[in-house]
Structures are given as structure tokens and as C-alpha cells.
């Protein structure tokens, strides 16, 4: 997480330019002195706590004063025994086993798909409600795929204390960031077709990728050959197609997640979605260019007002000063920023819009969304 904190330190002077939404303030990572221990709160387990998203889970739980009566920090055997600081207390990381979920109410998973597939059902069987950040269960029928601001009704009836376990999936980071902005407009005018081009940061590939980007930048500037352990090609001062496997149809898995997850979250199998996903040498926070075609007319001024009043959205759309969303301005922030709101001139009338969206992949694109789901379980 060194790269995360360094990025926050280097760019904190930019944060003051990001306006605050009316619905709720954006939140920075912070350390609280007191614990959020409550006798009536749920018992928590954080799986994959030593990873980038696992660490962000702890930050978000602290920032939002999430109530809990106990917390168990779980990771692989390799990480077991490590000490982790949380709310000014030191916790020992425990090895993840089948017995880890005895007495657990809510389990936040971010340890990869294979771990989720193995231990998620075990946790559910023991009565825990699992909020899984991997892709393992997203498209499984009957498993809610949830963005709290978008489709909270998908997890209706699932609550702590209901006497049984359940599984809820966190969508892919790029899907979350896109749909946070597109959904308020979709509700107003119904999206018929959406074309998305993503500019995805190193954070999406984990802490190791962030460290490698930092290392490569130094190496290239010093005239040395770049270290390429995480990606097969130079990342610093370069960009390339997303590293997810390419499928027979020519799309990669990241792009198909956008297609399939949007349809499931919107409960609309007819909406047409296409995506091109690109890795860019940005440390943290994804950007996306989104083109929307609507069934009903929607002019840009109305769209701007809709977005200004949408929960979790910040509009940064200053044409006179050419100031629009940037990854730096949303890094370590809860809100998703939207700008470049303009009519699509290639479409007749007011049936098309272009928007530019930026959101912190580690935060709203992963940990924050999962914790917001957990809050809805209480």
C-alpha cells in the first residue's frame, strides 16, 4: 500500500478543486481513534485483508464508522501471523480456513475468484452473508449483482439476522464507475445503446502493478530497461489493450463484463453495450468515455441537472476553463466525477449524449461499494 499512500500525499493539493455533491460529502481515507465496536453490531470477517482492496476495506469501514461487535482479518497461510493496524489497534492476520466463518455475520471477500469459489459457499453454509468482490458469482442466476445507488432492490429481503447465509456480488470496477453516471440518465430517457472506452489505472491490477509502474517510471527516466513482471510490456509512458484474456469474439473478458453486468444490473437484456478497455499509466482511479443513445429525447442541460442531483455523483463540467474530471481529483474519494456532458452531434435531435467519467477503482469501484452493500444488510 506504499504506492497508495504516496499517491495520496503527492496529489492532495489537487483535491480542493473537486466540489462536493449535495447528497453527501466525498470522503478521504483517514484514521479514527475510537473503535466502532457495538454489542448489537454484526461480526465481520475481511478475506484477503493484506491486498490493496483488503486494506481499503479497513479504511472504508473506519471512515464510515461501520458498527461491528467483532472483526476477523483473514488471508493466506503466507500472510498469517502478520500484524495489521486498524483504528489504532493491532490485529493479527489469521489463516483462511473452512472454520474461519463460525459465528460470522458478514464476510467481505477480496482474495480472487478461486478463493471466493472455494470459501464463499462455505461461509454461506455457516450462516454468513458474503459480499464478494471477485467475478466468481456475478453472472450466477439468483446471486444479486449490486450497486447500492443503482439497484438496491436486487438484494431485497437479505438482512443480518435472517437466520441463513447469502451471497451478494460486487460488480466489476469499470461497470460500477460507468453505471453510477449512466443510470440516472437511463432512468429518465432509457438507454438503447451504450459505447464505453475505458482508461484503466494500475490499481485495477493490484498493489504489485502499482509498484511496477512506479519502478518502471524511474527505470525509463534513468535509461534502464523496464522491469516487466506484472504486464508483458512496458507500462510507463505507454498504454495498451487491457490485459484480460481475449475471447473468440475479439472482445477481452473485461469488455464482456461491462456488457453482461450492465444487462443484469439494469435488468434489461435488450440494451446494446460495447466496450474497449485500455490500460493507461495512471496510478489510481479509472476514467471512461461513455456514449449514450436514448429512446426518449434528453438534452444536455437536463442531463447535467439530473447528474448534479444523483447520489454519489460530482459534476465537474467547466467548459470556460477546460476543467473536467481527472483520475487525480477522484483518487481516494468516494464520489464518481462526471463532465464533458454534451449532445452527440452524430445522432438526430437530443437522442444522444457523450459524457466523461472518473472514479477511484479501489474505493467506489471495489471496497466502498462492498461496504455500502454491507450497510444495507443491517
TrEMBL record:
<dbReference type="Pfam" id="PF01118">
    <property type="entry name" value="Semialdhyde_dh"/>
</dbReference>
<keyword id="KW-0220">Diaminopimelate biosynthesis</keyword>
<dbReference type="GO" id="GO:0019877">
    <property type="term" value="P:diaminopimelate biosynthetic process"/>
</dbReference>
<keyword id="KW-0486">Methionine biosynthesis</keyword>
<comment type="pathway">
    <text>Amino-acid biosynthesis; L-methionine biosynthesis via de novo pathway; L-homoserine from L-aspartate: step 2/3.</text>
</comment>
<keyword id="KW-0521">NADP</keyword>
<keyword id="KW-0028">Amino-acid biosynthesis</keyword>
<protein>
    <recommendedName>
        <fullName>aspartate-semialdehyde dehydrogenase</fullName>
        <ecNumber>1.2.1.11</ecNumber>
    </recommendedName>
</protein>
<dbReference type="GO" id="GO:0050661">
    <property type="term" value="F:NADP binding"/>
</dbReference>
<dbReference type="GO" id="GO:0009097">
    <property type="term" value="P:isoleucine biosynthetic process"/>
</dbReference>
<dbReference type="InterPro" id="IPR036291">
    <property type="entry name" value="NAD(P)-bd_dom_sf"/>
</dbReference>
<dbReference type="GO" id="GO:0009089">
    <property type="term" value="P:lysine biosynthetic process via diaminopimelate"/>
</dbReference>
<keyword id="KW-0791">Threonine biosynthesis</keyword>
<dbReference type="InterPro" id="IPR005986">
    <property type="entry name" value="Asp_semialdehyde_DH_beta"/>
</dbReference>
<keyword id="KW-0560">Oxidoreductase</keyword>
<comment type="pathway">
    <text>Amino-acid biosynthesis; L-threonine biosynthesis; L-threonine from L-aspartate: step 2/5.</text>
</comment>
<dbReference type="Pfam" id="PF02774">
    <property type="entry name" value="Semialdhyde_dhC"/>
</dbReference>
<dbReference type="GO" id="GO:0046983">
    <property type="term" value="F:protein dimerization activity"/>
</dbReference>
<dbReference type="InterPro" id="IPR000534">
    <property type="entry name" value="Semialdehyde_DH_NAD-bd"/>
</dbReference>
<feature type="active site" description="Proton acceptor">
    <location>
        <position position="286"/>
    </location>
</feature>
<feature type="active site" description="Acyl-thioester intermediate">
    <location>
        <position position="173"/>
    </location>
</feature>
<dbReference type="GO" id="GO:0009088">
    <property type="term" value="P:threonine biosynthetic process"/>
</dbReference>
<keyword id="KW-0457">Lysine biosynthesis</keyword>
<dbReference type="InterPro" id="IPR012080">
    <property type="entry name" value="Asp_semialdehyde_DH"/>
</dbReference>
<dbReference type="GO" id="GO:0051287">
    <property type="term" value="F:NAD binding"/>
</dbReference>
<comment type="similarity">
    <text>Belongs to the aspartate-semialdehyde dehydrogenase family.</text>
</comment>
<dbReference type="GO" id="GO:0009086">
    <property type="term" value="P:methionine biosynthetic process"/>
</dbReference>
<comment type="subunit">
    <text>Homodimer.</text>
</comment>
<dbReference type="GO" id="GO:0004073">
    <property type="term" value="F:aspartate-semialdehyde dehydrogenase activity"/>
</dbReference>
<dbReference type="InterPro" id="IPR012280">
    <property type="entry name" value="Semialdhyde_DH_dimer_dom"/>
</dbReference>
<feature type="domain" description="Semialdehyde dehydrogenase NAD-binding">
    <location>
        <begin position="43"/>
        <end position="158"/>
    </location>
</feature>
